[in-house]
Write a structure and sequence with these properties.
By secondary structure, this protein is α+β, with helices and mostly antiparallel strands. Helices cover about 35% and strands about 15% of the residues. The protein contains 9 helices and 9 strands. The strands form 3 sheets. The chain has a 5-stranded antiparallel β-sheet, with helices on one face. α3 runs antiparallel to α4 and α4 runs antiparallel to α6. The protein is globular and about 55 Å long. The N and C termini lie far apart (about 45 Å). Bound molecules: adenosine-5'-triphosphate and magnesium ion. Magnesium ion (MG) binds next to loops.
Amino acid sequence: DAPRLSDYEKISLLGQGNGGTVYKARHRRTSQPYALKLFAAEEPSAAREAEILMLAADVPHVVRLHAVIPSPAVEQPAALALELVRGGSLAGLLRGLGRSMGERPIAAVARQTLLGLEALHALRVVHRDLKPSNLLVGVSGEVKIADFGAGKVLRRRLDPCASYVGTAAYMSPERFDPEAYSGDYDPYAADVWSLGLALLELYLGHFPLLPAGQRPDWAALMCAICFGEAPEAPAAASGEFRDFVARCLEKKAGQRASVAELLDHPFIAQRDAEEAQRSLAALVAEAAQLGDQ
Ligand code: ATP
Ligand code: MG
C-alpha cells in the first residue's frame, strides 16, 4: 500500500520555508516519530527533492528519507516522511542559544558537512542551497544536510547551474555570471562558497554580508557578492579558521579549495573529531534547556 498522509499524526510545527511546511509527526501504526515535509500542490521542487534523497540514501550526513507520500491529484509528491533530527537546524540553534558559536563546534559542522558533500558530489549532486537553516543537528552533535529543493543531478559536466535557485544570499559570485559557465568551470565549487559563508555566520552570529540585524536588500547583496571583497573571519579568530574560511570564500571559483582539500585543512585535520562533535552536542543540549525554561 502506498503511504498516505492520514498514516501520520501531526504533533507540532518544526519549520516553514519556501518549499514546504515541516511538522513533527508520529506514524499512527508504528508510533515512530518523523519530520513530515508537506508541499504545496504545485510545488516543483517536491519531485526533485524526493529523487535526490533516494539517490543519496546511503550518503553519510544526509537526512534520511523514510517515505514518499504521493498526491492523489498531481504528479509531485504531497509530502516526504524524513528522519526527525532532534536538534533542528543550525539557524534555530543560533537563535536558541542567543549567541554565536565557537570554533570547536564549528569544526564539527564543517567536517561532517564536507563528508556529506564529498559523497554527494561523487554522485554528481550539487545542493545549491547550503545555509544554516538547511543543516540539521542531532542530540549527539551529528550534522545532516537537508532541503534538496534546489538540488540538481548534473547529467553532463557543464550542465549550467546558473538558474536562480536556492537562497540568493548564499549564492557564489560565479552563479550570478553566465560567462563563468564555460571552460574549466567547476559546478561543485558553489557549494563550498555557501558552506564557507554558513560557517562564518555561525562564528559571527549573523549573516556575514550584512551588519547584524539588517534586512537584506537584494540588489545591494548581489553587488556585495559580485563586486565587494569576500567576507573574512575577524582577527580574533584562529589562523586556521581564518584561512579555512578564506579558502572557501575565494571569489574565483577556480581558485577556491575543493572539498577534498578542505577535509585535509588544519582547521579540521588537526582537531579531534569526536571532541569537536561533543562540543556541538553540548550546544544542542544547552539550547534545549534554554527552550524549556
Ligand atoms: P527554505 O525554503 O526556508 O529553505 P524549505 O521549505 O525547503 O525551506 P526545509 O529547509 O526542508 O524546508 O525545512 C524547513 C525547516 O524545518 C528547517 O530549517 C528545519 O528547522 C526544519 N526541519 C526540516 N527537516 C527537518 C528534520 N528532518 N528534522 C528536524 N527539523 C527539520
Ligand atoms: Mg530550507
